Amino acid sequence: MTDVLDEALQAIALTAPDFDDGNTNHAPMVAETLDIIGHGDRILAWIDAYRRDLGERPVERPPLTGEWRSALGQPRLWSEWAAFFRAEIAERGWRDVLEAWTARLAPGLSGAATHGFIRTAHAVRGLGRAETQPRLNELADALAYWAATYHAFGSTTTDLLHFSLEDSLARVPDLNPDTSGNIDEALRQLDDSREFAPVVNLLHTGTDPLADLSALTERFAGVYLGNAQDPTRTFAVVHAVTGPSALRLLAPHVSKSAQELLLLYAWQTAAAIYGVWGKNRGAAEVSVVSTSIEELTEASVANSAAHAIKFVEACLREYEHNPAPVYLAAASDAAGRLTG
What we know:
Blueprint: H1 2-12, H2 27-36, H3 43-50, H4 78-92, H5 94-105, H6 115-129, H7 133-148, H8 165-170, H9 183-188, H10 209-226, H11 231-237, H12 239-250, H13 256-277, H14 293-303, H15 306-321, H16 325-337
């Protein structure tokens, strides 16, 4: 159904990258997910219903020129970033652009609740299946969103403390920013937190970043289950799985050094979410799930909520690489619970 995905991406390209309330446009990520799980026939109807509440794409602007660092984290410059990345991809090829810019953007991975990173990863997975102009344009728009929403936490220590995942999580402080706004607004309040600053350097990473990624997503699938009874915490903790798991989609297309850097900042962002919303820190009880992977996928599509479709697919993707029961339990819960 790759032609349907291209048609959907062309329609999505006419819409704004965010809703009026600042929340992310999930349409390109959901369209690519529906395509990969074999539900391409549902993409266009899903997009038509979803985009009714979206504004139009901002007016095209000339591409950024000169020093780009000062343009990071400025949503108003998304159009300039998009034009810049379209020109870069046309000139240098998408793989070279991806390698260079994932390293530059990695420290700002937490911006927009990780959605610039996630959107880029879905765009890359789509390009891995077919290199078409709509998909190249989508990668440019996704990288632009990552750059325009870039958010690096405040100064960190330089010492690498090298704790295990469990010991690192135990050292994440209980953080209490104002959570009345969206996830991104809460996370930005950690910039001046002396408690949180050292967290990025806590985790010991080994020689295999993707094995470390499996350990991270397995643990946070359990964090999801442990906090699933609270709607606000549930919604936030979802991104501690889907955010880091985006690395799985990028990994075949970037260097090991880029993978290691992305893992470091994916950990930092997941730890931030854990510190703010992971209030239930005990081990989650994992029920045995008899539902098949196909049935879990169908349940998420029947739900139709963007986060249900994306989270369930991420859990099942991680399960393929690390068949831990917690992924199926989290997917089963989310397929019926998540909305929005």
